[in-house]
Specification:
135 residues; mainly alpha; 74% helix; 0% strand
Length: 135
C-alpha cells in the first residue's frame, strides 16, 4: 500500500466514521436513499486517496491489478459479495478498520483517535449550515 500521510489517514478515518454512522442512522430510519448517498460520497473519497486500488484490494485479499480488472467487468457490489462481504456497507466498515489499524501502527491509541474525531466533529458542527434556499 502506498504511504499515506498520518494526517490524511486520520482524516480518512474521520470521514469513514461520520459517513458510516450516517448510513447506519439512515438504515434505522429506513431511508435507503440517504444511506446510499453517503456510501457514494465515501466511495468517492476512497477513490481519490486510493487511486491504484491498493487499500481496497488489501481488504479483499487480492492484488490491486485483480481488483481493477474485476471492476472493469462488474460493479463494486458484485465484487465485494464475491469476496465474502454482505454488502458495500460491511466492506467500508472493514476499510475504515484497516485505516484505523494503520493509525495504531503509527503510534495512535484509541483514545487519541476518539479525541481527534470529537475535536473535528465539534468544529464541523459549529460551522454555519447553508439553508436549502441558499444553495
Amino acid at each position: 500500500m502506498k504511504k499515506i500521510t498520518t494526517n490524511t489517514l486520520a482524516t480518512l478515518v474521520l470521514i469513514g466514521i461520520i459517513s458510516l454512522s450516517s448510513v447506519n442512522a439512515a438504515a434505522l430510519e429506513r431511508r435507503s436513499l440517504r444511506g446510499d448517498k453517503q456510501l457514494r460520497q465515501l466511495e468517492r473519497v476512497y477513490q481519490r486517496h486510493d487511486r491504484k486500488h491498493e487499500l481496497r484490494a488489501s481488504v479483499l485479499g487480492i492484488s490491486a491489478d485483480e481488483l481493477r480488472e474485476q471492476l472493469r467487468e462488474r460493479s463494486l457490489d458484485v465484487v465485494v459479495k464475491k469476496y465474502g462481504f454482505k454488502d458495500r456497507l460491511a466492506f467500508y466498515v472493514a476499510v475504515t478498520g484497516k485505516l484505523k489499524d494503520e493509525l495504531y501502527k503509527r503510534g495512535w491509541t484509541e483514545r487519541k483517535i476518539e479525541q481527534f474525531v470529537q475535536k473535528r466533529v465539534s468544529r464541523l458542527s459549529s460551522l454555519p449550515q447553508l439553508s436549502p434556499a441558499a444553495v
